Amino acid sequence: MKPSVSAWLEASEEDLSVVKALLQSKLATGAASFHAQQCVEKSLKALLEEHTKNDKDADEIIDEIYQSRSRNCHKIETWVK
Q: What is the pLDDT of residues 9-52, one digit of tens each?
């Protein structure tokens, strides 16, 4: 596993821990939602960095996915090994 992938997964796990703690308190559901979104995004970045076949970083790939979705064009398979 690439070091950057491990770092993304560690950060994702930290966000998930925050989500669990915030949901138990039942006071900060908005903050829990934010950290849940961050957890998913960091997990996606880890997945993309581990399995992409080019030198683009995960942020660039995610930007391209959003742009292609807005043009109704899906090219995800071109980024995956």
A: 999 999 999 999 999 988 888 999 999 999 999 998 898 888 87
Question: Both tokens of residue 12?
Answer: 């994702």
Q: What is the pTM of this model?
A: 0.72
* Under 8 Å between Cβ of 13 and 46: no
- Give helix 58-70 / helix 29-51 axis angle, nearest 10°: 100
Give the list of residues 6+ apart from residue 54 with CB closer than 8 angstroms, or none: 79
Q: CA-CA distance, 9 to 11, in Å (whole number)? A: 5
Q: Residues 19, 40: contact at Cβ < 8 Å? A: no
As given in the structure block, the two tokens for residue 31 are: 């903050």
